[in-house]
Amino acid sequence: MVAGTGRVGEFGSTPQERRHGWLKNGNPPGDLSTVKRCGARTRRGSSCQCPAMRNGRCRLHGGLSTGPKTAAGIEAIRRARTKHGCYSKAAMLERRQGRVELRILRETLAYLAKTF
């Protein structure tokens, strides 16, 4: 060990030499420089360099869920995603009917303005 350099002597010439064995939570050891990369197109125009998961994409570009597959699952998501109801079928129909009524009222007012 060289004086004033800390714990370098415990590890050898480089700290990576002694770091072998299993990682936390049962993850296998390995060299991150050799793992498969995500490769998704980034906003920069280059490919993403994050380590890929089993699906071939990173946690940012691949996600784990591809959404519900069954009709019941799709319906549950549709109901759960309603925050304000502005885009529900009932709300859009009500706005459409309101626009029709407003147009009729404007035409009526324009007709009355011409006759009087």
Task: Give the topology, please.
Elements (H helix, E strand, L loop, with lengths): L7 H4 L59 H10 L8 H27 L1
Poorly predicted runs of 5 or more residues = none
Shape type: elongated
Evaluate the radius of gyration.
31 Å
Alpha-carbon distance between the two ends? 105 Å
Please trace the helix and strand order, writing H or E for each element: HHH
Q: How many helices in DSSP terms?
A: 3
Strand content: under 5%
Sheet of most strands: none
Mean of the pLDDT scores? 80
Total DSSP E strands: 0
* Secondary structure category: mainly alpha
Give the proportion of residues in helices. 25-40%
List keywords for this structure.
116 residues; mainly alpha; elongated
Characterization of this structure:
With 116 residues, this protein is an all-alpha fold. It contains three helices and no strands. It has helices spanning 8-11, 71-80, 89-115. The longest helix has 27 residues, at 89-115. It is elongated. It starts with 7 loop residues before the first helix and ends with a helix. The mean pLDDT is 80.
